[in-house]
């Protein structure tokens, strides 16, 4: 029995989020520049997206570029932005063929014009696809997102559109950039780093965390299957006791 056959399709996480880490270190291990790692990471994106869609995962969110990543060397940032444009354009036919919708979260307006245009074009041309939604987190920061939500609700309260006492979890969640998307039930991070790095801090409150020593360019379908199997073997109690959920 292969790994895929061990997966219970009735107990899939609806939403899987991934921190794609280790491109630079993988490239260094192979005596190559960091950009080489980013380019090879595209294969991992393709394989993981296919694996999630084939299983029936509804949402897959990939942490592609954080607000902190702007502090990297300018050459690397420029290469990443160029790679993003090329990848979105190249993979567009594959996304449509596989009925996958593209979305994005983050401060997208601050992306370079070409990157922003390619992204919006990809979102528009896949908007009617229904099999799975692939969400790219670009120029994204969870703290930025939370502050934006607070400002939005504070403005509405000041305008007396809402009352402060009416603000609840649902209203706050609807002010986030992930409005309409279920919270991730599984968060995967590659490269053996065991931290969240300012990613979906509100949304992953009850997510299962899965860390793998593999660098992102090494990640393949079978590794995604391993993460799903690990998730399905965990007891998710949400504050209850084992006896209450059995």
Notes on the protein architecture:
This protein is of the alpha/beta class and 246 residues long. The chain has a single domain (12-141, 183-233), classed as Undecaprenyl pyrophosphate synthetase (3-Layer(aba) Sandwich). It is 42% helix and 15% strand. It is built from 8 helices and 6 strands, in the order E-H-H-E-H-E-H-E-H-H-E-E-H-H. The protein has helices spanning 23-29, 34-55, 74-97, 113-125, 142-158, 169-173, 221-232, 242-245; strands at 15-19, 59-66, 100-105, 132-140, 186-189, 208-211. It has a 6-stranded parallel sheet, sandwiched between helices. Helix 3 runs parallel beside helix 4 (113-125). The longest helix is centred in the middle third of the chain and has 24 residues, at 74-97. The chain is globular, with a radius of gyration of 19 Å. The mean pLDDT is 95.
């Amino acid at each position: 029995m292969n790994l895929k056959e061990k997966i219970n399709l009735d107990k899939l996480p609806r939403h899987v989020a991934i921190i794609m880490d280790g491109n630079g270190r993988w490239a260094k291990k192979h005596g190559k520049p960091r950009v080489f790692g980013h380019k090879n990471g595209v294969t991992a994106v393709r394989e993981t997206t296919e694996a999630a869609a084939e299983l029936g995962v509804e949402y897959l969110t990939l942490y592609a570029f954080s607000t902190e990543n702007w502090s990297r060397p300018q050459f690397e940032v420029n290469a990443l932005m160029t790679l993003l444009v090329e990848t979105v354009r190249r993979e567009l036919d594959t996304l449509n063929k596989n009925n996958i919708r593209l979305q994005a979260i983050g401060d997208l307006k601050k992306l370079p014009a070409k990157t922003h245009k390619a992204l919006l074009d990809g979102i528009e041309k896949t908007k009617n696809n229904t099999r799975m939604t692939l969400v790219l987190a670009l120029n994204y920061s969870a703290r930025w997102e939370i502050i934006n939500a607070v400002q939005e609700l504070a403005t509405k309260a000041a305008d007396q559109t809402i009352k402060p006492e009416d603000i609840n979890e649902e209203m706050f969640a609807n002010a986030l950039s992930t409005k309409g998307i279920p919270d991730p039930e599984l968060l995967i991070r590659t490269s053996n780093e065991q931290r969240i790095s300012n990613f979906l801090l509100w949304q992953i409150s009850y997510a299962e965390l899965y860390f793998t020593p593999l660098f992102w360019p090494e990640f393949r379908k079978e590794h995604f299957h391993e993460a799903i199997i690990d998730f399905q073997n965990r007891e998710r109690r949400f504050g209850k006791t084992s006896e209450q959920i059995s």
